[in-house]
Structure formats: structure tokens, C-alpha cells
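Proteins fold. Shown next:

***
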Amino acid sequence: MTLRHKAFSAVFKAIALTRADRWGRGLAQGAGVILTLHHVRPVSPAGFQPNRLLEITPEFLDLTLTLIRAEGYDIVSLDEAVARLTSNKQSRFFVALTFDDGYRDNLDHAWPVLAKHEAPWTLFVTPGFADRSARLWWLELEEAIRALSRIAVELPDGGFAARTETDAEKQHAFTALYWRLRKQPEAILLAVISALAQQAGIDPVALVERECLPWETLRAVSGAPGVTIGAHTLTHPMLAKHEAGIARSEIVESKARLEAELGIPIRHFAYPVGDPGSAGPREFKMAGKAGFASAVTTRPGHLFDAHARHLHAVPRVSLNGLHQSEEAVRALLSGLPFLLWNRGRRVNVG
């Protein structure tokens, strides 16, 4: 666990001990919150799991939804979340559930839990994953390091080499190389990971086939009650790293492609990665001009009335696989950690 996640754990524990999630609601909770999820599946016995923060168990999802209902909060669709934000009417605190990328386990393990709680949800789909033409590069990196006992790559800011024999060595190498690569142009990131995957005998297309939903399943899901399909670009790039024409095409054409394939209107968008280094004011304007009713980031925070004027820079809160506890859920729903994280700011769109 990184220092950042250790800090969050400490904050969650402090909030639980002081019961600040109860008395502090009025300070930071706002009108509602949008939760971000990726994978939902049973615990893996593997020791090396560098992307574990992106997955929670069905049991933790069940605990989360049970707690939300017990607190008397509303679980709403994204359409309803936007409607409440843009209305002058007061309503109960609401929670919207969003799942990024379009993974198979969302149907296998999340949907039964969501149905049990009669919870609407949004699935943000990347057409390139459904086509098997885009790359789950963070998973490629994980699988390559899992398979190799040593890695060595050349980067513009210097070489990187590490022994990767034990799980601890693999974790250290993944973390260090991942963040080195995130600082590079995306073309370099993809090329370096592609070379490592090839060296390790990893088939990138097979990984996408294993993890992501195909078009025929997405067509069936898109008509189901309580399910909203949103766009997540064509190929899952970090948009801010690309020139304007490419970024605009990724946003606009993902909407058009999904509407053509699924035969439904696509009203909502999620920025891949979604942090300030991946999506900023330029991308927010593009999403608005593309005709989306909302566009969500991964900038952490709750929703306040002022977000009605920034519907294409909407914050979300991650249900993180490293923090699967009731105290974490209560803290996240209170909004208090994000009041601290955002230094008291309710809206963060810069």
C-alpha cells in the first residue's frame, strides 16, 4: 500500500473513531456522490496484484449497497443525478453507481448484487475493448512483470531495470515503472509495455477478450431495465496527452459508434484515467460540445449545487479495492476525506 493509501486508511479510522461521518455530514456531504467501480469479482489468491485497487468483491459491493439503503439514501441513475443537480428542489442525498471499461465480471458478479438492491447503474464502454482493438496496457504490464524474473527498458529520461523474482520485487518494479511511464507521452508508454509483453509471451488481444464484454452481450445489456450505457472514448487514451484533433475524435466518435452499435442514445461520458493529467478544461469543453449531458472525472469529491454549472467536469469517488471496509464506506459517503483532499474546495475543475 502506498503512502497515499496509508494516509486514507488513517483518515478512515479517525473518522470512524470520532464518528465524524455522523456529525460532520453537513460540512462536506453535498447533494450526492457518484461512485467509481471497475472490477467486481471474488478475491484472487495471487500474491502479486498491483491493480488490486481496481477491484472489489461482490460481498463488499453488497455491504456498500446495504449501508447506503440503511442510511436512507437514494440510489439513482446518472440521468436522475443530473436532473437533481440542475433542479432547485431539495432532495435526499443520492448515490449513483458507475462502472468503467466494460468488464465481463460486471455482469457475472456485480449485476446480481445490483439487482438484489434494485440499484440502477451505468456502464461506461470503450468500443475498442468490445472490438478487441484497444489495449488494457496496465494489465499487460502486470502480466509481463508476473511472467518475467527481470525487466530492463529504455526511457527518454533514462533506463529502468529491476529484478522481478519475488512478489515484493514485482510489486516494487510495477509501481516504479508504472509512474515513470505515466509521465511519458502515451506512444512511449504503449511501445515500452508492448515490448515487455512480447518478451513475456503475453497476447494483448487475448487479455482484452478474457476481461471485456463483446458487442453481442453489450447489445443485450443495453436494453435492460436500470442499466445505462455511457461512452469511455474509442480506445481509452489519456486525452490530455494528445493533440486536440485526436482527443476530440476519441470523444465524439465513441458516442457515435456506441449509438450505431447499440441503437440507443448515449448521454454520459467518462474520461479514461480521469485525473487532472488526463482530462482538463480543454476536454471538458469538448465533451460539452459533443452533446453529452454529463462527463465524469476521477477527481475525488461529492456533488454540490455548484456542479450544475460544471456538468462536464463531475467528480467521482472510487470504491477502492485496498479499502474494503464499512468504516471506509461510511467515510467516503460522509464527504469528509475530500474536504481535506480538496483543501476545502467544493468544485475542482482547473
Observations:
- Residues 142 and 338 are 30 Å apart (CA to CA).
- The chain has a mean pLDDT of 95.
